[in-house]
Write a structure and sequence with these properties.
The chain is built from 16 helices and 21 strands. The C terminus is likely disordered. Helix 3 crosses helix 5 and helix 14 runs antiparallel to helix 15.
């Protein structure tokens, strides 16, 4: 395999060679970026734009002032519905031990709780929402998972104290009582003086990389294939942020030139692509002091055992090193919607909806134009009639004076045929069929009125969404696996974990990265991210409860447990309102057949009936097994 890192003339030659690859890539994917721009422009409601190839920007066509240009943005609700389906149910992640050893099993349990905690702390669900919006609107989008040593909570450590010249300071060593320590020679012991210094603990960083910020080889089909030996992330950083990430760049780059701020896609790419935003004053407002940075990651080759990172800014190599923590891959993970065989970039649902929504807008606009002509038609006026241009208005009872014997008459536009209205409705039906997003609850087909039947039809529609959900789950597996691996490597100090346990109880404990080790794997349950009907789930639970699967329905404690599974809020409050004498499960005075607590003892924090617990009136019920089955459902 060709080595892109071959030393042919030092760092300067390498930086120049990689920059040439970047320039070539920018030219070859021009058509792709044009479609991505149009997709998001249509999503935003700018559906009369076209891409000017010569000016390389989006522009509005020049039309007469009377032209009606209505916009019925059906693309936005379709995208929002697709994102809602994808994120409705949180994928179920399980951490599996790498062996049968008890230590690995215990570490896997801790890792699963840590993953739940870090998922909430890093606000990953919010990032997944932005991620889903990106790949549902434009194309393949990425999550970059790194460990940021300059982030996280602050702690104080002891470091040697120095004077202004950098020379170490010394002081008499003291014991815990503050008394000087005396050595064997009877003299006070002198030791380097220490001072407190605040340093960050470091934290996991999960960052969205948009398709406009990442480059791959033209021949690449996916990140894991040999056809993708490298990726390059090109982003603009403000001066402070750039130096925070790469402090070694101080003095190596020139921040004098200002470039347009590319904080987000909407602030830079789309706005600068619109012709009405391309003014000098607007460009000045969007400029910040910073620099464009190229971050290259290369897979291992014959001369490099590990993946190699190369950071280039201002045509200078800022850093270059092999990173064993990448394990021969990349720190980015791809998420997409519609897979195109043999192509790296996925299609978005907006791609096929653009011409239909544009035709719908044109049809409705033409109907309004004809309506306007009917309300205020054109007039045929003989020459010499002496009628002023302002004589004919829409004033009721107006008297129009004219010369001659031939009177001015309005022209009647043709009636709009019915097939024009049918055509508009047919376009909406086509958009629903293409996107597979439809609302059978609002407009049930035929004579279907049963809620169960409508839920079944919704589930059938969601089944076509399965491939996207499976790809989404597979990418989340890789993200979660890398997060836990980085935690095991970099969490050297104890951290506090705060989560809600499966029984709704708080679970708080301390841990370090070494507690979870490296011998584990992360599995996402297949199909767990597919949308599930809450109504159907509650109906199943009620049927099982009526059949006695949870115990006798007359028992207030059984009803409390069923209400909790139904997710109806505080089950204890609901039961106690109607059954004041109900006793929570596992506390002193529990009914016969339930575990009780001796008088004076504290009840357990998470009382769970052991397998095989038999309730009166239901001798065949294994409560533990039933509740776990419902939780999995």
């Amino acid at each position: 395999m060709l080595s892109y890192l071959e030393d042919k003339g030092g760092d300067e030659e390498l930086a120049s060679r990689l920059n040439e690859i970047y320039q070539q890539q920018s030219k070859t994917r021009y058509l792709l970026e044009r479609d991505w721009l149009l997709n998001i422009a249509f999503f935003l409601g700018h559906q009369y734009l076209f891409y000017n190839n010569r000016a390389t920007r989006l522009e509005y066509p020049k039309v007469p002032s009377w032209r009606v240009r209505l916009v019925f943005n059906y693309i936005k609700p379709i995208v929002l519905s697709q994102v809602a389906r994808l994120l409705k149910a949180r994928p179920t992640m399980n951490v599996l031990p790498g062996s049968k050893e008890d230590s690995d099993a215990a570490a896997a349990k801790v890792a699963e709780k840590v993953l739940d905690y870090i998922w909430r702390k890093l606000k990953i669900p919010m990032k997944l929402r932005q991620l889903a919006m990106w790949f549902s609107t434009a194309t393949t989008t990425f999550l970059k998972v790194e460990f940021d040593p300059s982030a996280g909570d602050i702690m104080e450590i002891d470091v040697p104290d120095t004077d202004k010249a950098g020379n170490p300071k010394y002081a008499f060593q003291t014991d815990e009582a503050g008394q000087p320590v005396v050595g064997e020679d009877g003299q006070p012991v002198v030791a380097p003086a220490m001072k407190k210094q605040s340093v960050p603990l470091g934290e996991i960083s999960v960052e969205i990389i948009t398709p406009f910020e990442i480059y791959v080889p033209d021949s690449a089909t996916d990140l894991d294939s040999p056809s993708c030996p490298w990726v390059m992330i090109c982003k603009f950083y403000e001066r402070s942020e750039f130096l925070r990430r790469w402090p070694e760049a101080e003095g190596k780059v020139n921040f004098a030139t200002k470039e347009p701020a590319r904080q987000s896609f909407y602030e830079a790419t789309i706005l600068s692509a619109f012709s009405n935003y391309n003014t000098g004053s607007d460009q000045q407002k969007g400029q910040l002091e910073g620099i464009a940075c190229q971050e290259w990651i290369f897979k291992p080759d014959a001369n490099h055992r590990h993946s190699t990172r190369v950071v280039i800014a201002d045509k200078n190599i800022i850093s270059k090193y092999e990173d064993p923590e990448l394990k021969g891959g990349f720190p980015v993970f791809a998420f997409g919607d519609i897979v195109i065989p043999g192509r790296f970039w996925h299609d978005a649902v907006v791609q096929d909806l653009r011409p239909l929504n544009k035709e719908y807008n044109r049809t409705k606009s033409q109907i309004v134009e004809i309506k306007n002509l009917m309300a205020k038609p054109k007039w045929t006026v003989p020459r010499g009639a002496g009628i002023k241009d302002t004589a004919i208005t829409d004033e009721p009872g107006e008297v129009i004076m004219f010369n001659g014997t031939i009177r001015p008459e309005p022209t009647r536009p043709p009636e709009i045929p019915q097939y024009v209205f049918d055509h508009a409705q047919k376009i909406l039906d086509d958009m629903q069929n293409i996107s597979n997003v439809r609302s059978v609850a609002v407009r049930p087909p035929g004579r279907i009125t049963s809620g169960v039947a409508i839920a079944a039809m919704n589930e059938q529609d969601d089944s076509a969404f399965g491939p996207t959900a499976v790809d989404f789950e597979n990418s989340l597996e890789s993200v979660a696996r890398r997060i836990l691996y980085l935690i095991s490597q970099h969490y050297k100090e104890e951290r506090l974990v705060q989560i809600m346990g499966r029984n709704g109880e708080a679970d708080v404990f301390d841990f370090k990265g070494s507690d979870i080790g490296e011998n584990f794997d992360v599995i996402v349950q297949t199909g767990s991210s597919l949308p599930r009907s809450k109504v159907a789930k509650q109906e199943l639970i009620m049927r099982l409860a009526e059949g006695g699967w949870f115990g006798p329905v007359e028992d207030p404690n059984v009803r409390m447990r069923v209400l909790k599974i139904l997710e109806l809020g505080s089950s204890e409050d609901l039961v106690s309102e109607f059954y004041p004498s109900a006793i929570p499960f596992g506390v002193p005075g529990a009914p016969p057949g339930m575990p009780s607590v001796p008088p004076g003892a504290q009840p357990p924090q998470n009382p769970i009936p052991p397998p095989g617990t038999i309730f009166p009136g239901n001798p065949d019920a294994d409560i533990m097994r039933n509740e776990q089955a419902i939780a999995r459902y």
